[in-house]
Amino acid sequence: MTILSVADLTMRFGGLTAVNNVNFIAERGHITAIIGPNGAGKTTLFNCITGFYKPSDGSVTVAHGEKSLRLDKLPGHAIAKKGRVARTFQNIRLFGGMTALENLLVAQHNKLQASTGLGVLGILGLGGYRAAERQAMELAKHWLHLTDLYDRADDPAGALPYGAQRRLEIARAMCTDPVLLCLDEPAAGLNPRESSALNDLLLKIRDEGTSLLLIEHDMGVVMKISDHIVVLDHGQKIADGTPAQIRADPTVIAAYLGEGDDDDPDAPIAEPAR
Amino acid sequence: MAYALQQLINGLTLGMIYGLIAVGYTMVYGIIGMINFAHGDVFMIGAYIGIIVITALAGVTSVPLGLVAAFLVAMVFCGIYGFTIERVAYRPLRGSFRLAPLISAIGMSILLENYVQTSQGALVRAIPNLIPGGITLMQEDGFVVQLSWMQLAIVVVTLTVLGSFTYLVTKTPLGRAMRAVEQDAKMAALLGIDTNRTISTTFIIGSALAAVAGVMFLLYYGVVDFYIGFNAGIKAFTAAVLGGIGSLPGAVLGGLLIGLIEAFWSGYATVAYKDAAVYSILAIVLMFMPSGLLGRHEVEKV
After folding, report:
1. What is the CATH number of domain A1-84+178-274?
2. pLDDT tens-place string over residues A252-269
3. Would residue A41 be called left, alpha or beta, if left means φ above 0 and alpha means ψ between -120 and 50 degrees?
4. Considering CB atoms only, which of B184, B188, B190 is closest to A79?
5. Which of A218, B157, B182, B248 has its CA 20 to 30 A from that of A274?
């Protein structure tokens, strides 16, 4: 079943067309990866999907339950609330001055706010608010455990080591209870051990029922965990298929050849089919 | 000794009022990065609403009930003023260049002053002291140190308001949302927080605090005119900068310091130069601590 469908998506910045007429579908319960050389338009495509940019043309539709929603028509804060799509950033954007736990609670703001009766009951600590707060705390604890951050819950997010901040960002995105989680280069800057822990975490998220969409340069991660891969080059989709199909696709190999990304043994370039 | 103690009491009382107004400046600065120059005038409107309610209820209800009503009505109305000011003068300019909302804030301030001047008259209006008396703390060489009930009331009300406000910001979902929007508005929106609504709420709360300060100013000095917002606003803004703009404890600390400096300077040097003393100390502090006493250093990430 389809969770996300991107149709004829185009994004222009002045005279530059960063994403040109891209179509693809992400399946429910799958990990879909978007790869491509630097400057291929991956992050722009991502920003369109998650409502950071309003696309110049085309549509982005997310389907959950019976409903399907046009993400490109929603205002920014409704993407998480109604669209139930969450994302992380390539450069980490945690609330550095708040503790790790608070970061996870902020992500559950809508649920908590709804139970506070316009904030008044919340201030007084009445009504369903206590129960909602306890529930929010449980969910936060669940993700702190899964991301191995439980011991650092009360530390300011900005003081955590880099790898921990990445995991916290994923945990925070998961606390918005998304049906689709979009990750922009989650493995960037991680050491091999952290990177393999990340693989496990992503597979776990998928198995708990959230579909994933990720941009990744680390082909070790991409080939190992993706169910489906979309390849972009110069703003256009050049290939679409399973990891095995992509590995063998001559256009993909050609697109990567100019890159010379030879410190990455698993990248398609390592197996030139010239 | 006795004289110094009396100045300490006077200074702290005045500082509490400045601190309450300064919190409003610092909150708005924190969340949208602009100085709300109309904030001092919201404080002035709070004082006027106070005098209107107290005059209307005089003789009808008991004094304590009248005072409670004055505080509540002033808070509600100033909250509406704050909400409207943000909607009319700042939100349409949010995406604009940085100086645009500054100019519209100054315009809003002039508008409010003139509006009160024409609708309430330019004359100074006065009320009698509603909480007379006090306790004599000590007596020395014929000098009596007094803590008036009024001063005590101001200190107690300020501490209560600041206490509940601190709870709101640190412990409730609304406070978390406010801090999140302050740190990264776009990211907060992606997590489902309605940033526009959060910013409106910030203005409403800041204005309600200014209303409390306004009514207390009215009770303490017994007089108001349409121009009090300018002077008190500038002083409170100074307090916010001195404490480190964007920092809530800093605003209160700055307010208290400015109240104390004024009181001691007036007591031991010349009253005429008390404002000069306040601003000189601000200049000296900023020379050595450019981000204020408790301010964060803003590090631009490249």
Report:
1. 3.40.50.300
2. 888 876 554 445 545 554
3. left
4. B190
5. A218
Paired strand residues for B24: none
Whole-prediction pTM: 0.83
Are A176 and A108 in contact, with CB atoms under 8 Å apart?
yes
CB of A34 within 8 A of CB of A230?
A: yes
- Search chain B and give the residue with CA nearest A102: B176
Q: What are A's interface residues with B at a Cβ cutoff of 8 A?
A: 50-52, 76-81, 86-87, 89, 93, 95-98, 102, 105-107, 109-110, 112-113, 116, 119, 122-123, 172, 176
pLDDT digits (tens, 9 = 90+) for A182-210: 998 888 888 888 888 888 999 999 998 89
pLDDT in the model for residue A270: 46
Nearest by CB: A109 against B168, B173, B183: B173
Q: What is the largest CA-CA distance in chain B?
A: 67
Q: B168, B190, B194, B296: which to substitute to probe chain A, counting the most A Cβ within 10 Å?
A: B190
DSSP secondary structure, A143-178, as one string = HHHHTT-GGGTTSBGGGS-HHHHHHHHHHHHHTT--
Q: Which residue of A has its CA nearest to B195?
A: A77
Q: What are phi and psi of B185, to 5 degrees?
A: -65, -40
Distance from CA of B191 to the nearest CA of A (A): 5
Question: What are the residue boundaries of the structural domains of chain A, listed by start?
Answer: 1-84+178-274, 95-177
- List pLDDT tens digits, range A83-114: 888 888 888 889 888 899 999 998 888 777 76
Average pLDDT value for residue range B265-284: 90
Cα of B176 to nearest chain A Cα, Å: 6
A256-265, B89-98, B163-172: the lowest-pLDDT one: A256-265
Mutate to test the interface with A, among B164, B170, B176 (most CBs of A within 10 A): B176
**Rg (chain A; Cα; Å):** 19
Q: What is the ipTM of this complex?
A: 0.77
pLDDT of residue B298: 58
- Across the A:B interface, residue pairs with CB atoms under 8 Å apart total 84
Inspect the interface and report whether the beta carbons of B183 and A110 lie closer than 8 Å.
Answer: no
By C-alpha distance, the chain A residue nearest B176 is A106
